[in-house]
Structures are given as structure tokens and as C-alpha cells.
Amino acid sequence: MIRYSKPPVLLHDVIEEIGSVVRLLEHNAPYTPLGGWYRPDADPDAPTFPMWFQNDWVHADLRVPGAELFLFHERVMQAARDFYDAQVIVPHSVYVNLMAALAKSGPAHTDNPRFHGRDRSNTPMWLLRTMFWSGLFDHYAIVQATSIWWMNDVEGGGFMYWPDGPDKPPREHVGTMANTALVGDNHGMFHQVGPVGPFDQGTRLVTPRAEFAPTPDRSGDWAITDHGTVRYQAPLDQCRVSVLWKADVYRNEQEQRQQMANTLSIPDVARIFDRDLEQRGTDVRFDLDHLEDPGLIAAVSAVYPEATPIDKAPSIFDAA
Ligand SMILES: [Fe+2]
Q1: Which residue segments constitute the domains of the chain, with CATH numbers given?
Q2: From CA 106, how far away is CA 248, in angstroms rounded?
């Protein structure tokens, strides 16, 4: 049984001095197209990527200088403590999205789940997601708080979210978004980035080698350069800039110790699924040697389908 999260908390006036964020953005340029690294088969010379750029500022093996501004933001940390009624907040990720000229929305989705012992480094993503939607592994789930902070107000660029579950209408954070943050559960709550202007030329596409960076003249403009040619140039404040933060959440240190010591192996996962599949009276069973087999993926996913949120907007990533 999936329990949907309560509505996220909106914070205002989150960053005291926006210039410090602009400097962080500049120091960590250039930015590369979202998904470029896990679409290794994409033609490096074909313009198939929207102008949705991303960089990591903090993950397990990285912390760029200055990222503490977001990583240990006290009001965001406190909002997460309050949201989950939890004492232990362990921030682990900060990353940045820069977007322009997306005529349609991003995908409506929940963020990828992690479990103690199982994450994308050792488990196929379809299996992690099916584990989440099955509800069979809630006891092992790593609860993660998310904050999304927006730097500026642009044309479009709203944020749709489904705080009452996927079968209830979404709400939208749009219009006055500059220096606000939404803190909540993006792993349990569907959400979707709305279309981002400028809209005069539809969704503009770039190749996976495109880079987004400040222009050399230090004018404050940023430019997307693709195969040596400037494809787009605008002041930074006309680009949708958002900074995402994620933290692991534990009710207290005792619970943290217990949960971290209680990890799942792949045979554990198969055993728990198989027991439930048997109780459901289906013949589907796990085959540990063929976890990427399309037939197995389809059969298991059909038993534990993902929800589809109502009123979701068409996505730039929908099949044509
Ligand atoms: Fe997300």
C-alpha cells in the first residue's frame, strides 16, 4: 500500500545574496544536456536534446567549493525535520538545472527510489521502481527529502505537483517563484516541470555535446555553444535556474543505525517478490540470472504497475 506524502512546504527568501549563487553557477560552468551521459548511444552530432542542462554540485564523491550554501541550508534542513518529524537529516546531493525554450513539459514522475543495500549502482532501475510501487519494501526504503529552489521568474517554468496523490488534480507553483523553495517528498509525490520560454521557436534542440556557459565578455549573458556555434544567448535571469537538494531522513539515530544495518541483497528482493507473487496466484517468478530480460521486466511490472497522475501535461520526452 503506497502512502502519499503530505503537501510540500513553501519557503520564501531562501538565499540571502543571489550573487553568491550566480558565482557558483559561473565557477561550475559549462553545463551539459540532461541525460547525455546515460544515453551513450545518442548520435553526438545530432540535435536530439532539449535545452535542459544539468550539473552535479554535490554527490557521494563530489562537493564543489561553495555548495555548502545549499547543502547545509539551515532553514531547508529544519523544514525537512518538521516535514518528516525526524531528528536526523543527512544531505547528500545538490544539482542544478538550467532550462530554456521547452515548448512542452518535462515528464511527470516520482524521483528514483533507494533502499538500504539497493540503489542504481547495484540494481537495475526498473527493479528499484517496481520495488517502490509494490509497497513490499517500505521497511527498507531510504526516506529522502527533496528541496527545489528557483532562482528567478521566467516565462512559464511553473512546477506542477500532485500532493493529494496521482488520482487527485495537481497544484501548480508558478508566477512568483524567485528565491522560493519547495521542501517535501518528491519520491512519493508526482511532479512535473511546466513549459519554459522563450516560446517563439518551439522546443529548440541541441546535440549531446552542447555546452551552456557564461559568454567570454563577462556581460552577464550565458550562451549555448554547440559544435563551435552559438545556438542561444540570453541574460542568465531569462533562463530557468533551479537547484535541487536531497537528504536521507531518519527519525532518530537509533533508527538510523538499525536501518543502515538491515540491508537487502538481490536474493532477498527475489524472495520477497516471489512470496508475494505466489500469494497473488500468478505464475511469474524471479530469475536472478536474467534480471534484464524484457519478458521478466514486463511480467513483473504488470503485477506492480506505476501510477499515472491525472491531468499531466504532454512531455517533451513522450514518444512522437
Ligand atoms: Fe523529479
Answers
A1: 9-303 (2.60.120.620)
A2: 25
